[in-house]
Specification:
The chain is of the alpha+beta class. It has 4 helices and 7 strands, in the order E-E-H-E-E-H-H-H-E-E-E. It has a single domain, classed as Electron Transport, Fmn-binding Protein, Chain A (Pnp Oxidase, Chain A). The structure holds flavin mononucleotide. Flavin mononucleotide (FMN) binds next to strand 2 and helix 1. The site of flavin mononucleotide has 12 residues, from strand 2 and helix 1. Its cofactor is FMN.
């Protein structure tokens, strides 16, 4: 689970550590599916597409908009690697907190930043009591040189 930080014309954006497990997986295979699920509404939206890193500037801007504690946490955490114990993280956090105790910019680690998924398939799923659930698939098609979203109904 990650925080969906933004949606714009370019796609869906989230931030993480590029050297995390998912970071390595995305560098091998830059395609992903995002899943949004609302239990109470019996509803799910699945978005598939290709993934690219956002620009350094965009990552810098977001990194520095976060609370200073979160910025330090991002430096401390070598995400997805084995840690001998919580004390190690706390110790490193304390050291960096002291180092950056004065006002001033905390440098964003090179390996921390955003990804943007450019969608090429959406599936809207709405549960029905009959179990004949609705599944509407949207995918792009070229028609007369224009890219339009084609919609089909899939069997549940
Ligand atoms: C509610 C929630 C929000 C999270 N948001 C993020 C996030 O925005 N970015 C992130 O890197 N990890 C986030 N995490 C942690 C990830 O789920 C995951 O543990 C971490 O990214 C390491 O994943 P990996 O080892 O598969 O790469 C969040 C976890 C939860 C429960």
């Amino acid at each position: 689970m990650v925080l969906l930080k933004g949606v714009d014309k370019g796609g869906f954006v989230w931030y993480t550590n590029y050297e995390s497990r998912k970071g390595h997986e995305l560098s091998e295979n830059p395609h992903a599916a995002l899943l949004f699920y609302w239990d109470g509404l019996n509803r799910q939206v699945r978005v598939e597409g290709s993934v690219q890193k956002v620009s350094e500037e965009e990552s810098e801007q977001y990194f520095h908009s976060r609370p200073r504690g979160s910025q330090i946490g991002a430096i401390v955490s070598k995400q997805s690697t084995v840690v001998p114990g919580r004390h190690v993280l706390h110790q490193q956090y304390k050291e960096l907190e002291e180092k950056y105790s004065k006002e001033g910019l905390i440098p964003k680690p090179k390996h921390w930043g955003g990804y943007r998924l450019q969608p090429n398939r959406f599936e809207f799923w709405q549960g029905q009591t009959s179990r004949l659930h609705d599944r509407l698939e949207y995918f792009p098609q070229e028609i007369d040189g224009k890219r339009v979203w084609k919609i089909v109904r899939l069997a549940p």
